[in-house]
From TrEMBL:
The name this protein goes by in its record: Ser/Thr protein kinase RdoA involved in Cpx stress response, MazF antagonist
Organism (species): Nostoc flagelliforme CCNUN1
MF term (GO), any: homoserine kinase activity
A GO BP entry: threonine biosynthetic process
Domain of life per record: Bacteria
Family to which the UniProt record says this protein belongs: Belongs to the pseudomonas-type ThrB family.
Length: 328
């Protein structure tokens, strides 16, 4: 029944782009419901902004927040060589399309993006691919640091308050015995230490700005030796080193130096960047665990991963030992 509603919403939304006859292919449902749309000449990505779990937080579903993501994508496509999915306006000249569900009276917000070609990479990244990923992230940060934000631009911030919220959101895993009390307390101590580090940092434009915040291996495509970022749905304001740490957690330690090498061909890294990145690495891990904690399919992964992370990353961090180039 739910799938039928989404198909109805998709068809009604496409009519507002003059594409009512476009072929619809359901792709998946996570942060939003996605369809591949095919017309006679082009392909598009339709997103119905309805997360699988509303526990992820309503902030991501606010129209102004979604529209701000689309504005950044438009600016990136217009002002950089980075290939991203360019948003389309509907026939009313609006970025967001509203569809009212007849049965429930619920309002759904939809957006339409141009499809871009490319393939997800299988296996682990090579040093050259890690280098290219560093280049890509540096290009995004370069644009972010120079772009004049439009009026009423709103995206969430990856700051010390968000870290605190992520830690709190993870506590139900203790009650469900997915995480031991001891490991949670260790994560809490690390959180306080990272928050203290954040308090020493300024929010000047060379180190803080718009970030992708979710550039894992599923969120960039390879096309003719070029990496193309996709899924900016979690983008927000944050430290560029947090964005780096968020991506590094998915790379083997042996290729992480290549990532930094690629990044620094475009942007200079701040002093003591390694220690700061390791703090943000811990923050990014807590963010990922909290994001998945309400998904029963991820419970086994959480219960197996947290003890390893605490032993191999958090304890060394708290003891002042570097782990970024040694531990995966």
């Amino acid at each position: 029944m739910q799938d039928n509603i989404y198909d109805y919403i998709a068809k009604a939304a496409l009519a507002q782009y003059g594409m009512a006859e476009g072929e619809r292919y359901f792709l998946g449902h996570s942060g939003s419901v996605t369809f591949c749309i095919k017309t006679q000449s082009e392909k598009f990505l339709l997103r119905i902004h309805q997360p699988k779990s509303m526990l992820q937080g309503d902030v991501w579903q606010r129209p102004q927040v979604i529209e701000s993501e689309l504005l950044w994508l438009t600016a990136l496509r217009h002002s950089t060589e980075v290939v991203v999915q360019k948003p389309l306006k509907n026939l009313q000249d609006r970025w967001l399309t509203q569809v009212l569900a007849d049965e429930t009276g619920e309002m759904f917000y939809c957006s339409l993006l141009h499809w871009i070609d490319g393939n997800n990479l299988n296996g682990q990244r090579t040093p050259e691919q890690a280098y290219q990923l560093g280049l890509l992230l540096a290009r995004l940060h370069q644009h972010s640091s120079q772009w004049q934000l439009p009026e009423n631009f709103v995206r969430p911030a990856y700051d010390k308050n968000r870290l605190q919220a992520a830690l709190s959101a993870l506590y139900p895993a203790v009650l469900q015995q997915l995480i031991s009390t001891e490991d949670y307390e260790t994560l809490k101590v690390a959180t306080y230490q990272v928050q203290g580090m954040i308090e020493t940092l300024s929010q000047t434009q060379n180190i803080w700005g718009l970030i992708h915040a979710d550039l894992h291996e599923g969120n960039y495509l390879l096309h003719n030796d070029e990496l193309r970022p996709i899924d900016f749905a979690r983008c927000g304001f944050g430290y560029y080193l947090y964005d780096i740490a968020s991506s590094l957690q998915y790379l083997l330690p042996i290729v992480r130096p290549s990532f930094f090498e690629g990044y620094q061909t475009i942007r200079k890294l701040p002093e003591h960047y390694l220690q700061i990145t390791e703090g943000f690495f811990i923050m990014a891990l807590i963010e990922v665990f909290s994001f998945h904690v309400n998904n029963p399919q991820e419970h086994k992964w959480i219960s197996e991963s947290v003890p390893y992370i605490v032993k191999e990353h958090v304890h060394p961090y708290l003891e002042g030992e570097s782990f970024l180039f040694a531990k995966y």
